[in-house]
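tool=predict chain=A
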Amino acid sequence: MKKVFVLFLILFHHSFNLIAQANTPHVYNWNEVKNVPVDSVKAISFKKQKLSSLPPELALYNQLVYLDLSFNKLEQLPSFLMQFNHLEKIDLSKNKFDSLPEIILQIPSIKYLILNRNQISFLPETISQLVALSYLDLWDNPLKTFPDAFLMMPQLKQLHLEGILYGPKFQEKWKLALPNLKIFFDTPCDCRE
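tool=predict ok
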């Protein structure tokens, strides 16, 4: 019986992985996309390219659903990203942003926004313009305040705030105010309330 159960788990895991892969577009690096028709490219990674700006030719790839800009030196984003109406996931982790890039607020299709390990200390109330946003990762940013806009974002399901020191009263207040939002805090400290 145990062998049958283990076999079932292996088959289930394998089937699940195949389904997940079928729903995930191929992620191209920038050198690869030059050999592929523009309309067929749905995901591009510029991870660890030490970029301080994005190539203007990226504007041609406005059908992207995923853009990985993590581990670079970006401080701002180009305005052409406003035309990326299909973009659902953008990874801006480990860059040099000190605030939420304004351009992001002009892309309402974004569901997953990853901003961990930047220098963001403030989120504007206008973050509520991201009507599709369900996952927000702000881990390890010096975020000092919480926007009340989170109260007007019922579609937001996960918020990562690990690496930011908040006191127990602050954490409890927001967990009670947002019962349908899974908020990931570090252990409360004797600090910011």
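The domain at 26-184 is CATH 3.80.10.10 (Leucine-rich repeat, LRR (right-handed beta-alpha superhelix)). Helices lie at 2-23, 30-33, 168-177.
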